[in-house]
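Pipeline run #58 for the internal structure catalog. This entry was flagged by the ingest filter as a single-chain record with no existing model, so it goes straight to prediction. Upstream metadata was stripped on purpose; only the residue string is passed forward. Reviewer on rotation: M.T. Logging verbosity set to normal.
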Amino acid sequence: MSVPPRWLRRAAHVVALLVLVTLLGLAASRLDLARTALEISRARTAWIAAALLCFVAILPLWAMQWWLVAPPARGRTMPVMLRVVAKTSSVLNTTPMLVGEAAGVVFLATDAGVDRASGMAVLAMDQLLVGLAKLGVLAAAASLLPLPGAMLAGIRALCVGVGVLLAAL
């Protein structure tokens, strides 16, 4: 596979930036700035800061997770893994189900130098760890809030399902 010339890559970046600025301008023109400022002034700053911190931390933590579970390879560095998960996230959020997962395995192989079988193992471990994290969130919610019986039964069933997957992996 050949790499496009540098000028073409730069032109593509400029076009993408122009599209982004145009879309942001269109969105801002339809935004009621006075109401937005009022709602922001009513919000609790600590919760907004916590939400922003969580949002910003997603990709670096994901990259660290994949870096930790991936086998050693020539390109397995944190900057490369950050690029891999950023591209994977973009594909996951813009394509039908399972395309993003497949793309993640391909990105691990092409960018990080991980063989495809190991890439599948990284993806499987990622899904397992995400499932465990979700169980932790649900367990915390269930311990802090009164939940209806049906929701508690659902949490128990989910715990059993993730436990079966953990045993299988």
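catalog note: The longest helix spans residues 116-144.
catalog note: The mean pLDDT is 90.
status: ready for reviewer M.T.
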